[in-house]
Amino acid sequence: MGRVSQIQVAGFCYPPVPLMAPAQSVVVKGLSKVYQVHERGAGLTASLRSLFHRRYRAVQAVQDLSFSIAPGERVGFLGPNGAGKTTTLKVLSGLLHPTEGEVLVSGFVPQRRQVEFLKQITLVMGQKQQLLWDLPPVETFALNRAIYDIEERTFKQTLDELTTLLDIGTIAQKPTRQLSLGERMKCELAAALLHRPQVLFLDEPTIGLDVSMQLTVREFIHSYNERHGATVILTSHYMDDVAALCPRVIVIDHGRLRYDGSLPDLVRSVNPHKQIALRTSAPLDRAALERVGAVVALDAARAVLQVPRAALHEAVAHLLGRPEVTDLTVEDPPLEEVMRAFFARPTAEQEAAP
Ligand SMILES: Nc1ncnc2c1ncn2[C@@H]1O[C@H](COP(=O)(O)OP(=O)(O)OP(=O)(O)O)[C@@H](O)[C@H]1O
């Protein structure tokens, strides 16, 4: 952790900012987080007993997690429910202390919550909101300007840019409680980005939004990343978000790292096949199709085949030569299916277990 050149004196850190721009935006080494959960039996007697004898159960949310992320990268942070994604994002943004391990974000130790660190990051949680409920979002924007001590001219410039990109000119003037979910999320994003953070932790930012609003939010995140060179770490159960935004994915399961690499490589490793969908003017012969690949569906006007990626070129050339074929598309299997198959695989530890 030599990059943080700070001297700790009676709880204060000097200097308040890292001396050098960090080569990595996020560094996580051997991170573990254990929650101590108070256990209480049902009924009055158990409640009274728990006042005197409190029993705790340890919940291991994150286990020995290590990765690093370069400035400007867009990374999807994936895993099934309860995998430890939100816990990790909370540690990275300094809301939770790690039980073990070391974490650096923009060269800062997050749990110190230094002002300069807070100006570098933002955490957007799709299920929580920071907008003041009874007031228009513009009031939250003004509050954030004061909290982050943003200079008037910069504030106006940034707000103008965000207002145009997110198209919130009118809606930011209405009380938050009157806004639709999608309108609210756009204003949440604006409020979270007014201080121009360099590291964005986005936890399910498109949850509950319709397809068109998901697209708007996705495009906005992409454009913010490109304009400001900001690092984006995104969790989402909508695989379309991840496919559209994240060249790299980090996958965790039961708090442990399962994969870190490109999304196409992950898809290839889980499913080494491509799907060919055909529209036909007359029924194709099943036996002839089976010589090309595995037949997934076949009727008078349509056929779907699965072929190994290595044989794709030859299969497409052959099928296009058939006079009955009027249309041909090549697809990957749906990402949701790929992820389901990935998580159904035994982990390295499970395989090693007797
Ligand atoms: N405050 C808490 N106290 C005790 N246990 C917790 C707490 N927060 C999370 N957990 C537990 O830690 C584990 C990881 O939870 P976390 O919310 O980080 O997962 P997640 O990957 O974000 O899940 P989801 O996709 O459902 O949001 C789960 O077993 C959860 O029950």
UniProtKB/TrEMBL annotation:
Report if keyword Ribosomal protein is assigned: no
Known Pfam families for this protein? ABC_tran (PF00005)
Q: Which superkingdom is the protein from? A: Bacteria
* Key words of the record: ATP-binding, Nucleotide-binding, Transport
Select a single GO molecular function from the record's annotations and give it.
ATP binding
Q: Which CDD domains does UniProt cross-reference here? A: ABC_NatA_like
Q: Where is the ABC transporter domain?
A: 46-279
SUPFAM superfamilies of this UniProt entry? P-loop containing nucleoside triphosphate hydrolases
Which Gene3D superfamilies does UniProt cross-reference here?
Answer: P-loop containing nucleotide triphosphate hydrolases
- Put simply, this protein is called ABC transporter, ATP-binding protein
